[in-house]
């Protein structure tokens, strides 16, 4: 019987400790919830009393204004034609818009051709180190190399095309200078 009473005494002690801890924690929770509620009420009160923020105007809020003054080195009639329509500017060989459009198209063509050349060169490099698992194909390619020769010819043609486009760009710069254009329009 001695064992039963010791075991029950331990259970009773453990149960008392649990209830004591629970009783200790309950008032702390009530107090913390009261503190949170009071802080929320205080924040709502402050929100009611603070004024609304003022509107800040940025560059995005202001519409872009057209330049109404004629550009330096041009007369007023050219400035007026620029304001009346963009179509007239794009077709006038003395206007900035005309030259910028032509140079942009030329630069785009050169850029596109250079990208195509780069891709073709990479494909050629890949073909030069390619391994053929079929011995007949490998033997034929050792003697013929037709695919590599075709790609080399295409690369040479693309290089000539790029040189031609760059020469056209240079000629266009000369033409613009003769027409009285600003060298900065070529960029």
Features:
mainly alpha; single chain; 187 residues; flat
Explain the overall architecture:
It is a single chain. The chain has helices at residues 2-49, 76-84, 86-91, 96-128, 135-143, 146-178. By secondary structure, the chain is mainly alpha-helical. It has a domain at 95-186. α4 runs antiparallel to α6.
Largest sheet: none
- The fraction of residues assigned to DSSP E strands is under 5%
Apparent shape: flat
Radius of gyration: 42 Å
Spans of at least 5 consecutive residues whose pLDDT stays below 50 are 72-86
Order of helices and strands: HHHHHH
Total DSSP helices = 6
Q: What proportion of the residues is helical, as a percent range?
A: over 70%
Distance between the termini: 105 Å
User: How many strands in all?
Assistant: 0
- What class, by secondary structure content? mainly alpha
- Overall pLDDT metric: 75
